[in-house]
Amino acid sequence: MWATLIGAANGIAVGFAMGPAAEKGAAILSGLFAGTPFYFIGICILVLESTEAQRRHRNVPRDVFPLVAMFLAIAVLFSLAQALRVRKRTRPCSAESST
């Protein structure tokens, strides 16, 4: 059940990023929501591994951090790409209306 709810929330966030937020020209909001699934995956991996390490009284394995960093980097790239796409799309409209 949790997987369904989380998947639905991620789908709504990405759908909102590509649809209404992009149409309104909200570049930051659209960009943030476009990277949501990758932010979520990266943070979940870190939290799950930290919890497991704490339960076993050990340190977090070293291979976790590069994996988390990879997911967060992909999320940032998706966010920036979407924000730039929205900004590029809305910029010509505002330049035409001022003349």
What do these coordinates show?
It is a single chain. By secondary structure, the protein is mainly α. The N and C termini lie far apart (54 Å). 86% of the residues lie in helices and 0% in strands. 21% of the residues are buried. The model has no long low-confidence stretch (mean pLDDT 82). Helix 4 packs antiparallel against helix 5 (64-98). It has one domain (2-92). It has helices at 2-18, 20-24, 27-34, 36-55, 64-98. The chain has five helices and no strands.
Summarize the topology.
Layout lengths: L1 H17 L1 H5 L2 H8 L1 H20 L8 H35 L1
Helix pairs in contact: 1-3, 3-5, 4-5
**What's the number of structural domains?**
1
Class by SSE composition: mainly alpha
**Beta-strand segment tally:** 0
What do the pLDDT scores average to? 82
Comma- or semicolon-separated keywords:
single chain; 99 residues; mainly alpha; 86% helix; elongated
Brief summary:
This protein is mainly alpha-helical and 99 residues long. It is 86% helix and 0% strand.
